[in-house]
Amino acid sequence: MSIIGYARVSTEDQNLDGQLLALNGAGAEKIFQDHGVSGTKTTRPGLDAALAYLRDGDVLLVHRLDRLGRSTLHVLALIQELGGKGVGFRSLTESVDTTTPAGRLLLTLLAGLASMEREVTVERTRAGLAAARARGRIGGRPRALTAAQIELAKIMYARGTAVSAIAAELGCGRSTAYRALEAA
Fold first, then answer.
1. Residues with catalytic annotation?
2. In this predicted model, what pLDDT tens digit does every residue of 59-94 receive, in sequence order?
């Protein structure tokens, strides 16, 4: 079993010293780092390298849960993915340790809370949209082209005009012009 550390700071002017000291003190044999990389990024070179390096029986160690990612759901999904590969997870600050029964219970509770948070957000969004509709507001993205523009696009296309020329004439992108022609 190897303890593999991961440390991250979001901006270039921050330093990793405190995290590295804590991870080394907790027995990390190798530490992967991301410096100046936001936790919201889907690809982080240091984390990607750590995940590729981890083997069955290893433990991924972080100083705090938010070093792994900003979103609760993303962090929990990542931890569950690790568990599926036989890799444990430990967070020093929050005392989460999935290699113990108590740590797995805590992770289950956190996952349940995150799921509830997501469902409440969806309910609130739906209620807000329903209230807006009741006030006569219609949400969604406005149409890129009017009915008259779509009709013009069809005529131009029937005459053999290239879609890029149609898009330029209508002041829209080619993909918008293609979608309008496909729908028509």
1. 10
2. 999 998 888 876 777 888 888 899 999 999 999 988
pLDDT in tens, 4-52: 999 999 888 889 999 999 999 999 999 999 988 877 777 889 999 999 9
Q: Is 131 left (phi over 0), alpha (psi -120 to 50) or beta?
A: alpha
Question: Residue 71: which region, alpha, beta or left (left: phi > 0; alpha: psi -120 to 50)?
Answer: beta
Global confidence as pTM: 0.62
* Residues 98 and 54: beta-carbon distance below 8 Å: no
First to last CA, the chain: 61
Report residue 53 as tokens. 């390096």
Would you identify the CATH topology of the domain 3-110? Rossmann fold (3.40.50)
Contact 31, 24 (CB under 8 A): yes
User: CB-based contacts of 67: which residues, under 8 Å, 6+ apart?
Assistant: 6, 7, 8, 19, 39
CB 180 within 8 A of CB 150: yes
**8 SS3 class:** strand
> Where do the structural domains in the chain lie, given as residue ranges?
3-110, 147-183
Q: Which of 81, 77, 27 is nearest to 52 (CA)?
A: 81
Check if the beta carbon of residue 39 is closer than 8 Å to that of residue 65: no
